[in-house]
Amino acid sequence: MIRDPKDLQRYSAKERSNHWVVGISFILLALSGLAFFHPAFFPLTQLFGGPVWARIIHPFLGVLMALSFLGLYVKFKHLNKMTPADHEWLKKAKNMVDGNDHDMPEQGKYNGGQKVMFWALAVCMLLMTVSGILIWRAYFGFDVTLVRLGAVVHAAAGAVMIGLIMVHVYAAIWVKGTIRAMWYGTVTRAWAKQHHRGWYRQVTGK
Amino acid sequence: MALQSLDIKQRSATTTPAPQARQTVEIAKLIDVSACIGCKACQVACSEWNDIRDEVGNCHGVYDNPMDLTANSWTVMRYTEVEQNNKLEWLIRKDGCMHCSDPGCLKACPAPGAIIQYSNGIVDFHQENCIGCGYCVTGCPFNVPRISQKDSKAYKCTLCSDRVAVNQAPACAKACPTGAIQFGSKEDMKDYASKRITDLKERGYEKAGLYDPEGVGGTHVMYVLHHADKPELYAGLPANPTISALVSIWKGFTKPLATLALAGIALGSLFHYVTKGPNEVSKEIEDEIEAEDKETAK
């Protein structure tokens, strides 16, 4: 890939590092969490030094992810406010998925889909954190009804979150020229102009 | 305690049938609350046979000692003073695992083989497979399993599965001086209970009955109660215990459903890529940028 001094800076080093901490902790959490979710995934505990270690490590990774996610949330929440253009974008999202993005409305740094993803992940993260504390028996002892509720919410929100992240990752793979923003922070001007024209205008002044 | 190999009915976190070629007789322990004198010989016998020693606690001003089940006290006597028919009654119930036919602990357990239900009805914890998550506590409708502070493993009454395996009665039943703890086939225990209930009814306990709650498919520890219409009198014995609906949702249909949904997203993404192709920057825009650059260079 040719890097051009005229490439646009999309993410700072700090933002990228923060995202990687969230990403790594998420992958480890998903693998260890799935192991306890369904017996078919139980062998995944071997990646963590055995089932007991997986059980011990999982909640600490959860704390790490909750804190690092909070960093991303604070940094990006103002960029994810829904606008009328976003609603219009969402209405036409089917065309986009079909590979026809010619008449999509102009989008800022994030499009409607990305914003929905942001808020859905934020809600899941909150549910995961609260329910996770409820079922963390090594350090907490809540009323059994609360623990039962926590267990259901944790499993459900976890499954939804894994699904959302799969979509998030796939979208980055599908839209060529995106993943480099996560590695070294820049995107080409053509990429910005095609996918986020509003943001392109804003940063280039064109 | 891994003993039997062929007479397993259910194994935790296992989706295929367990070895079950052999069919053993369904057993039960019958605790006749009306014949219990509260001597705690059963508590002592339990700790003797199983080689568990709880910490010496403090006197709390009541007979209950220890005050609750622990990882080292698998059975405790619970004493309740109640007034029934204008008479003071001292109800003493030996608490511990009920060995449910439909065990909530086993349903909730995520560790394969950490909880085993034998075909004779005993629900046993195999600590070597236990990961210490405490899901069994979450699943149990009787609040029985306890996580050890020492090793983070779950412990509870084994119904002396090791003794039963060699045709011996559980230690508590062996030690009981009044015959309040009976042990045998579930069938025989029900017969014995009905005789006791007839006797109690003749003595004025009209609501005497057997506690073998259907909500958990029946239990392999049953009580004869003088007030079977009000089991809560006996230190909060639940009237209609069932596996919580929350636990059923959590461990029921959601698991395969969510697994399928996630597989669907993964495969859906793959085939989307294969059928629709990548979303690349259009040649048109590339050219526009190039033209702009040429313009600036001039």
Set out the fold topology:
The complex is a heterodimer of chains A (206) and B (298).
Chain A: E1 8-9, H1 13-37, H2 51-76, H3 84-91, H4 93-97, H5 112-134, H6 144-174, H7 179-183, E2 186-187, H8 189-195, H9 197-204
Antiparallel strand pairs in A: 1-2
Helix pairs in contact in A: 1-2, 2-5, 5-6, 8-9
Chain B: E1 8-11, E2 27-32, H1 41-50, E3 75-84, E4 87-96, H2 104-108, E5 115-118, E6 123-125, H3 135-139, E7 146-147, E8 154-155, H4 161-164, H5 171-175, E9 181-185, H6 186-202, E10 209-211, E11 221-225, H7 245-251, H8 254-276, H9 283-297
Parallel strand pairs in B: 2-11
Antiparallel strand pairs in B: 1-5, 2-9, 3-4, 5-6, 7-8, 10-11
Count of domains of chain B? 2
What can be said about the biggest beta sheet of chain B? 4 strands, mixed
Number of E strands of chain A: 2
**What is the topology, as strand order, of the major beta sheet of chain B?**
9-2-11-10
Please write the string of helix (H) and strand (E) elements of chain A: EHHHHHHHEHH
CATH topology of the largest domain in chain A: Fumarate Reductase Cytochrome B subunit
Q: How much of the polypeptide of chain A forms β-strand, as a percent range?
A: under 5%
CATH homology-level superfamily of the largest domain in chain A: Transmembrane di-heme cytochromes, Chain C
- Give the low-confidence spans of chain A: none
Assembly annotation: heterodimer
The CATH class assignment of the largest domain in chain B is Alpha Beta
Q: Biggest sheet of chain A, open or closed, and with what strands and sense?
A: 2 strands, antiparallel
Structural class of chain A: mainly alpha
What integer is the average pLDDT of chain A? Answer: 95
Strand order of the largest sheet of chain A: 1-2
Poorly predicted regions of chain B: none
